Amino acid sequence: MNKHIIIFILYLFSINNSFAQDPQFSQFYANPLYLAPSFAGATEENRLALSYRNLWPALPGVFLTYSFSFDKFFESFNSGLGLLVTHDRAGSGRLSNTIIGLQYSYNIKMNNTWYARPGLSFQYTRRGLNFARLIFGNQLSSSGTTPMIEPPPYNNIADIDFGTSVLFYSDKYWFGTTVDHLLKPNQSLYGEESKVPIKLAVFGGAQVVRKGRLLKPIEESLSLAFLFKKQAHFSQLDIGMYWYKNPLVFGVWYRGIPVLKKQFGDAIILLVGYKTQDIHIGYSYDFTISNLITATGGAHEISMVYEFRTNPKRKRKIHAIPCPEF
């Protein structure tokens, strides 16, 4: 079974035209700019975020995703700007995707309770492959491997992309949607046309319990949240809860759509985090519950968010989005 899985994955990476899915993060709120450009600048002043994900460590080859972002709120313009860099590397051929994006959001006060944040994202994408590391079926013989006869692709291909989002939130609730890959960048390494399909994400949640003293940071909270994504023929639902008791965070998530799919689900995610006013550090593990339960080794993910001020004397308070930080 393991050999069949590996062969299938290598086949996906070697065909000319494929419909790839974007890399995903279990701690999507720890990588807010990747979730939606509406989160750009949704901080008191400056924010740095780092994420690392190791998917299916039990399989040969690597399935790694790295993400770095920086965003800042500009009070004079009531706007936020962000920079997002994501690098994804998969399989024995090291098929890679690098995305560098600039993001903008604007904060709108709708009434005394609700706020809105529309956002825009402009991206440069670069796709690459180490073709020399691949071994095709026509190279295998009784005497070992023979020179490849497959025509080599381009080493790299670049394109541009665009996305948009909107976020609505109050003291206890938030709801948003993101539409990405509106320009459908080309991902073919052979000069043909293979467009990245448009991705739709819908997310939201609520703080059902919140404890804290007046004018003091929240000391304890319980939040429920969800994330639904659809890209081409693929769909996915994450639903779960976070419990925060200063300074620790614990979370549990279920990933899957059992009503629409034959499998019970894809994964159960467990999270533990440490949160202070400036630094948030989280670790999560995806327990595979699909048919691949004995073959993949799940997924490890580590995140770190650092919020800081360049002008400590300025006491600016924002209307905080109540969503978790992991």
Indicate the low-confidence ranges by residue numbers. Answer: 1-19
- The Cα radius of gyration reads 21 Å
Structural class: mainly beta
Give a quick account of the main beta sheet: strands, pairing sense, barrel closure: 14 strands, antiparallel, barrel
Oligomer: single chain
Q: In order across it, which strands form the biggest sheet? A: 1-2-3-4-6-9-10-11-12-13-14-15-16-17
User: What is the arithmetic mean of pLDDT?
Assistant: 83
CATH class: Mainly Beta
What is the name of the CATH architecture? Beta Barrel
Number of structural domains: 1
Commentary on this structure:
With 326 residues, the protein is mainly beta. It has a single domain, classed as Porin (Beta Barrel). Helix content is 5%, strand content 50%. It is built from two helices and 17 strands. The chain has a 14-stranded antiparallel β-barrel with strand order 1-2-3-4-6-9-10-11-12-13-14-15-16-17. The longest helix is centred in the first third of the chain and has 13 residues, at 2-14. It is globular.
